[in-house]
Amino acid sequence: MKVIFVRHAETEWNVRGIIQGQSDSKLTHRGLHQTSALLAAFGASDYRVECVYASPLERARQMGQSLAECFRCPLMAEPALKEQAFGQFEGMSSAQFLKYHPNDANALFNLDAEYCPPGGESLSHASQRIMRFLYNLEETRLHQTICIVSHGHVSQGVLAILKGGVVDDFPRYAQPNASYSVFELINGRCVALRWGIATHLRHLK
């Protein structure tokens, strides 16, 4: 099964440096242009996506709807694809987080995939729920090619697992809004991973 794994476009909270998690904010004008650029890239590609699965959070659902229209295929909302829950830190600016909770910030974003923010979940847990969803889809063999729309931080954990088998190396897999990764799952194993593809965004200011 081939998987195209997309991060949602830029939101207002992304620009303002506010921790989103499973909270939500609107797309920016730049985010809308990013979406258009991604759609143009896929429209010119030879990908034949049979179903789009998107996190139900609005920023991902919007991207999922646009992609489903582009590929002329169904859109399915999937709770397992939500961002990591950041608990009491959601809605806090990154600057405040670093100032008042430096150890938590370092653990959450740089060091420890097992770190669980108060009232939230660990990156390890969030990544594994997406991996379980992917493995279940691969086992059913319903589709040859699918598109997944999810979120920035949890995608780092997923890509680390796909590439290296463990989540620990997650910081190296950061990728920009509206970028995508492509990989294949064959009998539960990942092959031919390409990640952080963003050439379609180069012309945007």
Q: How would you describe the overall organization of this protein?
A:
The protein is an alpha/beta fold. The protein has a six-stranded mixed β-sheet with strand order 3-2-4-1-5-6, sandwiched between helices. The chain contains seven helices and six strands; from the N terminus they run E-H-H-E-H-E-H-H-H-E-H-E-E. Helix content is 40%, strand content 17%. The protein has helices at 12-16, 29-43, 58-71, 94-100, 102-111, 123-140, 152-164; strands at 2-7, 51-54, 75-77, 145-150, 180-186, 189-197. The model has no long low-confidence stretch (mean pLDDT 96). The protein has a single domain (2-201), classed as Rossmann fold.
Task: Give the topology.
Layout lengths: L1 E6 L4 H5 L12 H15 L7 E4 L3 H14 L3 E3 L16 H7 L1 H10 L11 H18 L4 E6 L1 H13 L15 E7 L2 E9 L8
Parallel strand pairs: 1-4, 2-3, 2-4
Antiparallel strand pairs: 1-5, 5-6
Helix pairs in contact: 2-3, 4-5, 6-7
Descriptors:
alpha/beta; 205 residues; six-stranded mixed β-sheet; Rossmann fold; globular
Instruction: For the record, give the distance between the C-alpha atoms at the N and C termini, rounded to a whole number.
Output: 35 Å
Order of helices and strands: EHHEHEHHHEHEE
Tell me the strand order in the biggest sheet: 3-2-4-1-5-6
Assign an overall shape: globular
Average predicted confidence as pLDDT: 96
Per the CATH scheme, the topology name is Rossmann fold
Question: How many structural domains does the protein architecture include?
Answer: 1
Structure annotation, total helices:
7
Low-confidence stretches: none
Helix content: 40-55%
Q: CATH superfamily name?
A: Phosphoglycerate mutase-like
Architecture (CATH level 2) name: 3-Layer(aba) Sandwich
The CATH class, by name, is: Alpha Beta
Strand proportion, as a percent range, falls in: 15-25%
The largest β sheet comes out as:
6 strands, mixed
Counting DSSP E segments of at least 2 residues, the number of strands comes to 6
